Amino acid sequence: MPTHLEALQQRAAFFTDIRRQIHRHPELGHEEQNTSDLVAKLLAEWGYEVHRGLAKTGVVGTLKCGDGGKSIGLRADLDALPIQEENHSEWRSQTDGKFHGCGHDGHTTALLAAAERLAQTRNFNGTLHVIFQPAEELLSGGQVMIADGLFEQFPCDAIFGMHNMPKLNKGEFYFCEEPAMASSDTLHIHVQGVGSHGAMPEHGVDATLTACHIAIALQSIVSRNVSPLDQAVITVGCIQSGDAANVVNGKALMKLSVRALKPETRARLLRRIEEVAQAQAQSFGATATVERIIGCPPLLNSIEMTRFAAKVAQETFGADKVHTDQPPLMGSEDFSFMLEANPNGNYCFIGNGGGENAYMVHHPLYDFNDEILVPAAAYWCAITEAYLK
Asked: Residue 181 forms beta bridges with which residues?
């Protein structure tokens, strides 16, 4: 019998076409109807029990073999980004303003390739759940799938996820124990002052000036309230206030991105942001109200499952293709919700190649490297068979 790598290589052209088909027709979060239709159709043809509707467009395929009581979940994301693609490949996006700029088209396809192979070999004893999740870019799809009953309907003793990463060696695997990616919180700070004529500022309370001082004061939180050995970021990405030069504005809106690797650090940042904003506003005679728009916890890998997954990858691809010292990233991933609900799992990276000059994910010129479809799918096959012996 051919190895997974050999068998998957024979199907590489088919799945490359699938990946490029998905790339041509990108869909944003919770709108992935055509993509989920394609996924469901293929899974059903291969003998999976298909469930649809979690988080609106999510798909779960279940395959049972033997009498084993253990179950495993493999997750891929479905959605694209609201970015205009600048590539000119024949498979470039055909929808203006939408683009698979993070490689979710490749993640979906790699898991489909593994699903077909595992359905053919059935060399495992237990239950496999392949989970196709919508709206990862909104940092909400994983949370909604869980709220809709993902793990109640499809219990998983262990769960695994994977993401491609440009600049890392093509087709090689990278593992990080415990904090692997940061939390992400989007906050809006609403500053309320009193409007006035720009020539008579003494009759008003300047919300614009207040917002600027809040922005400066917020930068003291990481440097003075977080250990230098920890990692955290507070970014004030936007301040909106007024339109005219001769107006003291009564309102201002600040938009923040807040990230941390540890849950306790995240909690401290969120508390201090509110305290600092309100205190600064009060000093100007204004008020500040902090609104939490969306939040995603840090991605915390299980040490045991990370070491297990790395060992499987080493046995499959060779120790020289597997790296166990990947540093954590300050980017975020809503697979963290799944690991929060079910901590027995791992999220790893596969190199997309390209070296230092490669375009990073979310860049208009990024493109998923089709040459990593086979190793990614082979990894999924190996993880399934090793866990469900």
From this structure: 299, 329
3-state secondary structure at position 260 = strand
Residues 6 or more apart whose CB falls under 8 angstroms from that of 17 comprise: none
Containing H/E element for 190?
strand 184-192
Is residue 25 within 8 A of residue 100, CB to CB? The reply is no
Nearest by Cα to 381 from 175, 121, 67? 121
Contact between 60 and 68 under an 8 Å Cβ cutoff? The reply is no
Is-above-0.85 flag for pTM?
Answer: yes
pLDDT tens column, 135-189: 999 999 999 999 999 999 999 999 999 999 999 999 999 999 989 999 999 999 9
Q: List Cα–Cα distances, 27 to 12, 61, 86, 131, in angstroms.
A: 24, 21, 17, 18
From the list 64, 34, 69, 30, the residue with the least C-alpha distance to 47 is: 64
Buried b / exposed e over 205-231, threshold 16 CB at 10 Å, is: bbbbbbbbbbbeebeebbeeebeeeeb
Residues 317, 45: Cα–Cα separation, whole Å: 30
CA Rg value for the chain:
23
